[in-house]
Recover the amino acids of this structure.
DNA sequence: ACCCAGGCGACGA
DNA sequence: TCGTCGCATGGG
């Protein structure tokens, strides 16, 4: 596993680097530090207390440790071009992040740069979330965010996205959009359900499906993926990615950002 | 100074 | 169901 690439390849915006190969982050109501050594991941609560069983299960699910990546990547490498993408940044895992965290993050992501997304997410959390540890905040709950007005979000400098964040919060708080009903739907119906939120279109919905709900076949098509698919995979995703096109997408996306800068 | 970003909704054809 | 445009903001 390549922790740095996994945490900073544009699928999550909630991790900070403390030292080389030593990171801290917060997801849902949980905070952890993490590093990798000798093929093991080490997670620790920053304040030194023990993890609950719930937290252990949470992080296991978050890092998708149930998926055999070495085996999956061997399949990917059967396609020459996909192999090149995997080898240009090996060890990336697609995370399964909490639903509301992911929804807000990718609403913010639209028509935006990754560095700036990270800044807005940080301000959203530190302004309206709950402090868990030094500089580590949760996202605000749907209820807390839903009670705010657009003017209240001015300090985030989220621009036109502020009203989208509020609509997402309202629809989640009211139960109009819920994780439990999304989980019962197939990919297409779940996407349709998510796009009921004002400001959530196909791309943002697909990011939620892939990065939160573990829908590994979903391929979010942003400007980089459109470029990469057009130039490298004009006939579509290779058969070697079958069933895991969304995970292949993550490798292609990273490759494109490195190699298609024009 | 200028371009553009992990897009979307509104609008017109 | 298409293509086009404006949108807020600021990093590079």
């Amino acid at each position: 596993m390549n922790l740095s690439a996994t945490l900073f390849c544009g699928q999550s915006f909630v991790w900070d680097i403390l030292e080389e190969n030593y990171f801290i982050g917060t997801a849902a109501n949980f905070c952890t530090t993490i590093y990798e050594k000798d093929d093991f991941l080490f997670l620790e609560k920053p304040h030194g207390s023990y993890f609950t069983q719930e937290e252990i299960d949470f992080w296991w699910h978050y890092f998708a440790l149930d998926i055999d990546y070495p085996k999956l990547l061997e399949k990917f490498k059967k396609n020459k071009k996909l192999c090149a993408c995997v080898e240009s940044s090996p060890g990336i895992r697609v995370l399964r992040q909490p639903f509301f965290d992911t929804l807000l993050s990718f609403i913010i992501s639209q028509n935006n740069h990754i560095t700036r997304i990270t800044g807005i997410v940080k301000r959203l959390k530190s302004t309206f979330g709950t402090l868990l540890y030094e500089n580590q905040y949760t996202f605000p709950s749907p209820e807390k965010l839903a009670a705010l007005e657009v003017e209240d979000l001015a300090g985030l400098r989220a621009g036109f996205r502020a009203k989208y964040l509020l609509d997402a919060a309202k629809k989640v708080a009211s139960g109009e959009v819920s994780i439990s009903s999304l989980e019962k739907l197939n990919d297409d119906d779940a996407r349709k359900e998510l796009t009921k939120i004002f400001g959530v279109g196909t791309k943002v919905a697909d990011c939620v499906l892939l990065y939160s709900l573990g829908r590994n076949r979903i391929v979010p098509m942003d400007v980089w993926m459109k470029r990469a698919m057009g130039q490298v995979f004009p006939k579509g995703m290779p058969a070697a990615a079958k069933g895991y096109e969304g995970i292949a997408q993550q490798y292609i996306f990273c490759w494109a950002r490195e190699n298609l800068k024009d």
User: Anything to note?
Assistant: The beta strands of chain A are 15-19, 22-27, 30-37, 40-44, 131-133, 136-137. Residues 10-11, 106, 109-114, 116-117, 160-161, 164, 198-204, 207, 220-225, 253, 257 of chain A lie near DNA strand B (CB under 10 Å from a C1'). Chain A has a mean pLDDT of 97.
